[in-house]
Amino acid sequence: MAYQLQVSAKILSWPRQCACCGGEANAELRAAASRTTGKRVQHTTTSWWHVPYCNSCLHHKSQYDEASKWAGRAIAGGLAAWVLIAWLTGSGWFGFAVCIVLACFGFWHQGKAQEEAQKLMCENCSAPSDAVRYVGWHGTFHTFVFENKAYLENFMTSNSRKTMSDVRQL
Asked: What is the predicted pLDDT for the residue at 14?
């Protein structure tokens, strides 16, 4: 279960513990959000916060995120094969079949790779991927989604003098 919180601040205090498992943090991960403004001339601005993690949780997160790309890669490869086979043979049916097989293989492989990444998680880990997501900001209001309720509570305690919204379960 995830929890959304808005906090108004220019500087935030992040508890020095892993945002995923609650263990000792020995690394950081950049939680970033981007927004685009303007109609004719568009400007994209990216803002980020450095969220504490442990190396073990960063490892399972990177493995899970990499595994999540397999289905898209397989679909792109399948579509390319479909076009190439249709161009070479003059018939798209065989290419379509190859596309479907490659897409199915991609989804299967993605599931297996994600399972392997989840096996790297310890019993205290809250999410296979991002434990804290930075959704965006408006002025000094920043919106975050936390996967670990204990870390959220520590974050709220560390920033108790800041204006905060109620915690919303997602």
From this structure: 95
